[in-house]
Amino acid sequence: MVQNKKQKLIVIVGPTSSGKSDLAVEIAKQFNGEVISADSRQVYKGLDIGTGKITKAEMKGVRHHLLDVVDPKSVFTVVDFQKMAKEAISDIVSRGKLPIIAGGTGFYIQAVVDDVDFPEIRVDKKLREELNKESSETLFKKLLEIDPDRAESIDPKNKVRLIRAIEIVQSLGKVPKVKAKSPYDVLTIGIKTTDKELKDRIRKRLRARVEAGMIEEAEKLHETGLTYARMDKLGLEYRFLALFLIGEISKEEMLKQIETKNWQYAKRQKTWFKRDKRIKWIELSKRKAITLVSSFL
C-alpha cells in the first residue's frame, strides 16, 4: 500500500462569533499544534477589539500566525495570504508541530487548501476607472454574474475588492482555477450553530467589544493616521465606527448596523462553507472535535 506523504492540516471553519478561535486553541494544546489565523482583517495591526482578535490570554500559550502582519493603511490580498500561510505551514511543520488554520474568510482558506492558481494580473487602469464610476450594488451584481463563488465571499460594499475580483476574471477570461488535488491531507471541522444561537452570540460579542473599548480603539487608529475613508473600505465594524465618529449616525444606529451587518456576513459565510462537502460539521464540542482529530491523525 502506498503511504500518503501529504502534510496533515487541520482547518476550523464557521461563521463569525461561532467559537473557532477557542476550539483551535484547544486542539493545538491537545495535539502540539500552532494556529494560523484566516481572517481578512485580523492581519492588520491595531484592528484588535473591532475584529474580535484573540488576546494573549485566550491563546493560552499557543503560538498564532498571520495576526498583525500588515499596516491597516496597506491593502492585503488573498495572494498575500496564500503565500504567507504556506510559509507559516512550512515553518510549523519544520518544528515538528501540527498546523491548524482557523477562520471565517472562506476564500483565504480555499486559496491555501485547494492551492488556487492566481496568475499575475497587471492593473488595468482604464477598466478600474470605468468600474469605479459604478455603485457597489452594480459591481456586486456584475460579479455575481461572472464569478458567483467569489461574490459569496466578498463584502458587497467593498468597492476595492469588487473591482479587483472583476478585473481578474475579465483579464483571464475565466475564474481562477482550483487545483485538482490539495497539496495537503486536510481535515476540515465546521462549527454548526442555529440562527438563534448565532444571533445571540453576535449580540453578546458586540456588547463585550464596546465595553472593551472598541470605539476608543477606532478613535486612536484615526489619530495615528488611519483615514475614515480607509476605515470605510475595511468594512463591517469599522465602516460604522467611522460614520459614528464623524457624526453621521448615532451610537445606537452604529451598534444596530454593526449587529445587522455581522449577521448578514455570517449568513454569507454559512452559504460559502455549505458548498464544501468535505467539511465535517459539529456543534461546538471540544470532545467531538478532539475525537475527529485523533482519528484523522
Question: Which key features would you list for this structure?
Answer:
297 residues, 6 strands, six-stranded parallel sheet, Helix Hairpins, Histone, subunit A, 54% helix
Number of helices: 14
Radius of gyration: 19 Å
CATH superfamily name of the domain at 196-265?
Crystal structure of tRNA isopentenylpyrophosphate transferase (bh2366) domain
CATH architecture group name of the domain at 196-265: Orthogonal Bundle
Please state how the strands of the largest beta sheet are arranged side by side: 3-2-4-1-5-6
Helices and strands, in order, run as EHEHEHEHHHHHEHHHHHEH
Structural class: alpha/beta
The biggest sheet, with number of strands, parallel, antiparallel or mixed sense and barrel status, is: 6 strands, parallel
> Which regions are unreliable across 5 or more consecutive residues at pLDDT < 50?
none
Summarize it.
Among the domains are: 119-175, Histone, subunit A, CATH 1.10.20; 196-265, Helix Hairpins, CATH 1.10.287. It has 14 helices and 6 strands.
Overview of this protein structure:
The protein contains 14 helices and six strands. The longest helix is centred in the C-terminal third of the chain and has 24 residues, at 251-274. Helix 1 packs across helix 14. Among the domains are: 119-175, Histone, subunit A (Orthogonal Bundle); 196-265, Helix Hairpins (Orthogonal Bundle). With 297 residues, the protein is of the alpha/beta class. Helix content is 54%, strand content 11%. The mean pLDDT is 92.
